[in-house]
Amino acid sequence: MPKGRKSAKLLGQVFAKKYLLQSLIGEGGFGAVFSARNIETNQKYALKILFIKLDSVLDQERDLQYFQREAGILSLVQHPNIVSVFEIGVSEQNLPYLVMELVEGKLLSDSLKNEGIFSLSRLVRLISQLCQAVAAIHKQGIIHRDLKPENIIINGEGENEVVKLLDFGLAKLVRGERDDKWLRTLTGRGQIHGTIFYMSPEQCEGKKLNERTDIYSLGIVAYELLTGQPPFCGDFPLSVMMRSRNCAP
Questions:
Q1: Is 235 one of the annotated active-site residues of the chain?
Q2: How many other CB atoms are found less than 10 A from the CB of residue 14?
Q3: In this predicted model, what pLDDT tens digit does every residue of 89-117 receive, in sequence order?
Q4: Positions of CATH 3.30.200.20 in the chain
Q5: 0.85 cut: is pTM over it?
Q6: What fold characterizes domain 106-246?
Q7: What number does CATH give the domain 8-101?
Q8: Which residue out of 63, 146, 167, 179 is catalytically annotated?
Q9: Could you say which DSSP state residue 233 is in?
Q10: Strand partners, 162
Q11: CA atoms within 13 A on the CB side of 230
């Protein structure tokens, strides 16, 4: 069954015996994220469901490993500018799920599209928060690898705006050789993971990464907020990669 039909079928249902799925927030490569209410406490959450079953065929195990890795990484970091995770489990339908903080607000990408470029004061305020979030994950030996406006949400208005960093599905532990070997088994040696406009040159080339790749991506985001577009654009991934290596912004 296509993911969209699975998501629609779950709406209005009580999932994992206590979460009423009220609306669909979004769908991705592995599953869907719902706005959910705990029927026991009345608290609202974002509930991410992976649309594979744990007893399914072996070629779906990689999806499960990605999901478990994201859940594990999020549980390592507690920070006001990073979405919090509260529960990891498997439903009665044998579907893995992740219960996260429900952040009301708008994506940074939508804000840029609808409101135009940011003032310098607003940019400094929001980017400084993102710097703190990135520093927090780096302190735990994690690199995000997919920093972009679509993975950042803004809550509040004016001076009270708060940003939250989302989506750690491509995040990587960089604590040692053991973690690197495990990740290469999961993602494939030398494969490219990320979003091309925000990727560092070494990430574009599938090379071994460290924390500097996130700092580069954060700079790209700041540039886009000031100018309205990333510094290196093109119709094809290869042209973007070449410009990021050889051209000035």
A1: no
A2: 13
A3: 888 888 889 899 999 899 999 999 999 99
A4: 8-101
A5: no
A6: Transferase(Phosphotransferase); domain 1 (1.10.510)
A7: 3.30.200.20
A8: 146
A9: -
A10: 155
A11: 23
